[in-house]
Fold this sequence. Notes:
- 41% of the residues lie in helices and 20% in strands.
- The protein has one domain (13-247): Vaccinia Virus protein VP39 (Rossmann fold).
- It starts with 12 loop residues before the first helix and ends in an 8-residue tail after the last strand.
- The protein has helices at 13-16, 21-28, 34-48, 69-76, 80-92, 107-115, 128-140, 153-158, 178-192, 208-220; strands at residues 53-56, 65-68, 97-101, 120-125, 146-150, 167-172, 193-201, 225-228, 233-237, 245-247.
- The protein contains ten helices and ten strands.
- By secondary structure, it is α/β, with parallel strands linked by helices.
- Strand 8 (225-228) and strand 9 (233-237) form a beta hairpin.
- It has an eight-stranded mixed β-sheet, with helices on both faces.
- It is globular.
- Helix 9 (178-192) runs parallel beside helix 10 (208-220).
Amino acid sequence: MKLPGNISYLIRSKENEKLPDVFNEFILDSMFQMSSFIDCCEYRVNMLADNTELNVTDFGTGESGLRKVKRIARKSSTEPRYGGVIQKIIDSFAIGTALELGTSVGVGTMFLAKANPKVKVTTVDGCPETCEFAKNEFAKRKIGNVEFINDNFDHLFDSDALKEQKFDLFYLDGNHTYEATLKYFDNIVKKHCGQKSIIVVDDINWSRDMFHAWKEISSRTPESLRLNLFRMGIVFSGYDLPKAEITAEIYKEGM
């Protein structure tokens, strides 16, 4: 079974009219396997009910300590409507490699990995316990297209852990500060983007810091299409798409 092509349940129909026709063709009218989307939603539900306690090391907020998985998932997991958009992008733009900064308990990672088993996903998290927890959960489900790296992002980019590897898609979902977001964005652009790239920045309206970080990223990428989905911003570089920033209001109600 496939998800219906038009995703107006993700984006308000009145806002769909603001999107360029070529974007509608690639994203709104594309289709992907409903089974993979359902698997991701089920994984998220499981995480939201998991009482396992983890000793969390949070390099972004500094709020470390014992935390239940369900609490972590409630605060940081990718919601289905956004996971669906990411999966459509992976399918529509034939994404082969993806780098995620901020594994947490692996909900966003699951949306990346299950979009297409041929996609090679590299996911990075600074917390040893959450990284190991997510790695074990993926092993239980026999998902083999994900590489888990336990490292803080600053050290990751300063070391040769990624070498000069290029990725097609990037998902920035960790350390939500203005300075850190721009630093990682710059590192990605300078070292790890090919001629074509898609960079997803999560939680762009989560704080004043992130709001201004997205505005700065948008101003630095005038030759790209920037899609503002309220929670996340997406930069499409190197594609034959309009050079503009377009806002598409995502439903704020739960699915």
